[in-house]
Design brief:
The protein is α/β, with parallel strands linked by helices. The protein has 6 helices and 8 strands; from the N terminus they run ββαβαβαβαβαβαβ. A hairpin with a 6-residue loop joins strand 1 and strand 2. Bound molecules: magnesium ion.
């Protein structure tokens, strides 16, 4: 009798679920959800995603070279960005690695558009921010550094070093953030979805 290979197929019922790591729609085994979604039902995962994309979002916006140039001038469309987020029901916060920047926002007449001010961590972003126990947690961010956008999710804008009346990066940022907030998707290549969409789930 010659060698034979026994192929064992263990049946399981594929269900369409959201992967907790990549949040892609994918057929998953009911018992194999990975990452932070492990143990959470498909219904729970769906509820988390719906809650994420339909509710009020805290959007944290960097100051230096995102909103303000090296000479202190305000970037074009800054007010438009804040007002569009406000009008859509979201909360635009200002944060900076240089501390609380309320005076800068007052100087530019922007203070009334800002939900609040927070100190931005400069490294080990998630751990440091948790340790600081901020008043609010960012759902999405806008920054000229891609590394911190990768950590929290949001959009990277081109650094604004010098006054440029033709700059439209903040209009682009508003378009991307609102597209994601409304649909759960964003086509802008500079946008990153938050890596942890279950942060709004109760512990
Ligand atoms: Mg910056």
């Amino acid at each position: 009798m010659g060698d034979s290979i026994e192929l064992v197929i263990r049946p399981w019922t594929p269900i369409l679920g959201l992967c907790g790591c990549c949040c892609e729609w994918t057929p998953v085994r009911p018992d194999s959800a990975c990452g932070p979604m492990r143990g959470i039902s498909t219904e729970g995962r769906l509820a988390a995603l719906r809650g994420m994309v339909s509710s009020e979002l805290n959007i944290f916006i960097d100051v230096d070279y995102t909103l303000i140039a090296a000479n202190g001038s305000l970037r074009p469309n800054s007010r438009e960005l804040f007002l569009r987020l406000r009008e859509a029901g979201h909360q635009p916060w200002v944060w900076s690695g240089m501390g609380i920047r309320e005076e800068d926002m007052i100087r530019h007449g922007m203070d009334g558009c800002v939900a609040g001010y927070i100190v931005k961590p400069l490294d080990d972003y998630l751990k440091t921010l948790r340790r600081l126990e901020p008043e609010a947690w960012p759902d999405l961010i806008v920054d000229d550094h891609s590394e911190i956008v990768e950590a929290f999710g949001g959009i990277t804008v081109r650094p604004y070093f010098f006054t440029d009346d033709e700059d439209r990066e903040l209009r682009r940022a508003a378009d991307a953030l609102l597209q994601y907030a409304e649909t759960g998707e964003c086509a802008d290549p500079a946008f990153r979805a938050p890596p942890d969409r279950v942060s709004r789930l109760p512990a």
